[in-house]
Amino acid sequence: MSGPFLRDYEIGEEIGRGRFGVVRRCRSAATGEEFALKSIEKCLLADAVDRECAEREAKVHHLAASGNPHAVQIHAAYEDEAWVHLVVELLDGPDLCDRIAARGGTPFAEPEAAALVASLAEAVAACHRGGVAHRDVKPDNVLFDARGRLKLADFGSAECFVGDGGDRVPMKGIVGTPWYVAPEVVAGKAYGEKVDVWSLGVVMYMLLAGGLPPFYGETAAETFEAVSRANLRFPPRVFRSVSPAAKDLLRRMLCKDVSRRFSADQGIHGLQVEE
């Protein structure tokens, strides 16, 4: 690890691990404040997309989190020959994936699901206003602070879709997690920030369906095929108590036609109307 980093922080226990690195607790040597340290090992970045994401993560995270109370805040970034280190807000509680699993297949009540998705939509909308698409919105990346406030985490796949001159820049590359990725990403087309709205719709569906995703298969390839078909169904056994308004909102977020798909701001309005 880099010298300046070791001077600034005391490194603690491991609290998470991903494809490219590890998350540990750390403490500021100056203030004693605790943070999470995300360390990305460069040698594990196998392709150009992964390398580009790692190189820009700190910058994009700063853009997405600035003025965004529903995003995990980033405090510092360090880099040496082997690693990229990001010092971010520490959130100890279970993530949304854990909360869904703990219910053992019991759906969230519609008002509770609407409140969670509204907060997540606000996080996504703020990212989009800053010109950033998250590109990996899923329950694993939805954390909560000590007061129970929702925080969108992990900007490792995020990208700016607005150029220096203010012009829109199409994004490319299959980035994200199969269950949550949008059809236009699977198709290999250029795409915009509404890929996050699709993922948001998947999260809402899962909350109302007790963890069941709307599009899935036994393998990643089968899941991508189901996503490409985008045949949205509401099994009566699962959705019998879900309101027509909630189902209509899901249809507008999980709409294959990007021009007709809601924006994040429209999703927030739809959730307010539903509540």
TrEMBL record:
ATP binds at K38. One of its GO terms (molecular function) is ATP binding. Pfam families: Pkinase. SUPFAM superfamilies: Protein kinase-like (PK-like). InterPro entries: CDPK_Ser/Thr_kinases (IPR050205), Kinase-like_dom_sf (IPR011009), Prot_kinase_dom (IPR000719), Protein_kinase_ATP_BS (IPR017441), Ser/Thr_kinase_AS (IPR008271). CIPK serine-threonine protein kinases interact with CBL proteins. Binding of a CBL protein to the regulatory NAF domain of CIPK protein lead to the activation of the kinase in a calcium-dependent manner. This is Protein kinase domain-containing protein. It comes from Musa balbisiana (Banana). The lineage of its organism: Eukaryota, Viridiplantae, Streptophyta, Embryophyta, Tracheophyta.
